[in-house]
Design brief:
The chain is α/β, with parallel strands linked by helices and 335 residues long. The protein folds into 2 domains: 227 residues, Type I PLP-dependent aspartate aminotransferase-like (Major domain) (Aspartate Aminotransferase, domain 2, 3-Layer(aba) Sandwich); 90 residues, Aspartate Aminotransferase, domain 1. The chain contains 12 helices and 10 strands. Helix 1 packs antiparallel against helix 9, helix 3 packs parallel to helix 4 and helix 3 packs across helix 8. The longest helix is centred in the last third of the chain and has 18 residues. It is globular and about 55 Å long. The two termini are 18 Å apart.
């Protein structure tokens, strides 16, 4: 199974023990809607060290929960939201859920966001632009020059940018990746603990941005999620000081294994981050290719789940190395 979008390592033991300790100490009740103050302070410090601009921080039920609150706060029926394609599937459907109109910017074949393509898709109805770097499903890390271009275009039109930074720990070929929140003051930054610390089941994220918008989202959280898991917030304070570099080094090795294993028979970009690779398949029919893979007991995801094209597939390398080698053998056999 190379289809799963979560780390194959478990929550580090010290962080599990921290959560268990707070459960035993009775920290099991509702927490403030915005999140416990000590975690918000820790997140604020974490973001300031990265140079991210923001006025207010809140804790959310994962990045997905934060994105939903932002959609509720910002999108009116008929508003357009600009989304680079390929994209995380929930962006499209949350916009549709609010009565908005998702507008896609094709970034093939290199998955870079080009100025002329972006500008062409903007209109008077555009409410905000979505940026996801490192990207799911492509693994692309947008260079700073691309982000500055987006910031300039957004500033000229007084647009918000929503920056989904959930994979920002997973960067392989540079010390860290640039993010929109460092560059553009009207950015709403989304981060979380699901990927970098493997807390997928604990559902814990955060949002930082302009105070007026975050306050609206806090009110919406009060009447939807109410609050976020109590013990997980305490463990997250410790997580932000926990060194995950050894895990990232393992994933860089996995990235190299899958890329080197596929590059001869597939047109494929080398992922800079996250834990996905997104090759174009022979015959340019991703759904048919996935059916062939399933017949060989290999589970991958058609690119059409993440795109208006059906030419690629998403392969997760968040798996043990022996499983990656077996998957590569199947993929090369059916190419």
């Amino acid at each position: 199974n190379l289809s799963i979008g979560e780390p194959d390592f478990d929550i580090p033991e010290p962080l599990k023990e921290e959560g268990i300790d707070w459960i035993r100490r009775g920290f099991n009740k509702y927490t403030p809607t915005q999140g416990i103050p000590e975690l918000r302070e820790k997140i604020s410090l974490h973001l300031r060290k990265k140079g991210v601009r923001f006025e207010e921080v809140m804790v959310t039920a994962g990045v997905t929960g934060g994105l939903l609150l932002a959609s509720l706060a910002l999108i009116n029926p008929g508003d357009e939201v600009v989304i680079p394609d390929p994209y995380f599937v929930m962006y499209e459907y949350q916009v549709l859920l609010m009565g908005g109109i998702p507008v896609f910017v094709d970034t093939y074949p290199d998955f870079r966001l080009k100025e002329e393509d972006l500008v062409r898709r903007l209109s008077k109805k555009t409410k905000f632009i979505v940026i996801n770097s490192p990207n799911n499903p492509t693994g692309t890390v947008l260079p700073e020059e691309d982000l500055r271009r987006v910031a300039r275009i957004a500033r000229e039109r007084d647009l918000l940018v929503l920056s989904d930074d959930i994979y920002d720990n997973f960067v392989f070929d540079q010390p860290a990746c640039s993010c929109m929140g460092q560059i553009y003051e009207k950015t709403i930054t989304f981060g979380g603990f699901s990927k970098g610390w493997a807390m997928t089941g604990w559902r814990l994220g955060y949002v930082a941005g302009p105070r007026e918008i975050i306050q609206q989202m806090i009110t919406l959280q009060q009447y939807t999620f109410s609050s976020v898991v109590s013990f997980a917030q305490k463990a997250a304070i410790k997580a932000l000081d926990y060194n995950v570099t050894p895990y990232i080094a393992q994933y860089k090795k996995k990235r190299d294994i899958i890329y080197e294993g596929l590059r001869e028979k597939y047109r494929v970009q080398k992922p800079d981050g996250a834990f996905y690779i997104f090759p174009e398949v022979p015959g340019r029919d991703g759904e048919a290719f996935v059916e062939k893979a399933i017949q060989q007991n290999l589970f991958i995801v058609p690119g059409s789940v993440f795109s208006k094209r059906n030419t690629h597939v998403r392969i997760s390398f968040a798996a043990p190395e022996e499983r990656l080698f077996r998957g590569i053998e199947v993929l090369n056999r059916i190419a």
